[in-house]
Amino acid sequence: MSHCPNEPIVCPPIQFVNHQFFPQVVPVVHPIEIINQAHIIPVPHHVFPVTVKDPSDPCCHTLSHTRSNGKRQVRSSSKR
Asked: Is the whole-model pTM more than 0.70?
């Protein structure tokens, strides 16, 4: 076995790993539930039933009027 001085010696290769990273979009779902709730709130509604009596009437009729808007009914009289 003779070696020539000009013959190259080849070594086994050295491996280098070049890591490459690429972004990939991955959807992440965040579900939102909207719940509509109805709340009943009591609101006072004032009703004033009005009874008008006229003692000068010989028949003594009673007039009864009910108004729901909260105002008193004013009865006009022709005698003043």
From this structure: no
pLDDT tens-place string over residues 10-35: 999 999 999 999 999 999 999 999 99
What separation in angstroms does the CA of 6 have from each of 2, 3, 13, 27? 12, 8, 21, 62
Identify whether the C-beta of residue 50 lies closer than 8 Å to the C-beta of residue 66: yes
d(CA 75, CA 80): 13
64, β-bridge pairs: 51
Are residues 66 and 73 in contact, defined by beta-carbon separation less than 8 angstroms? no
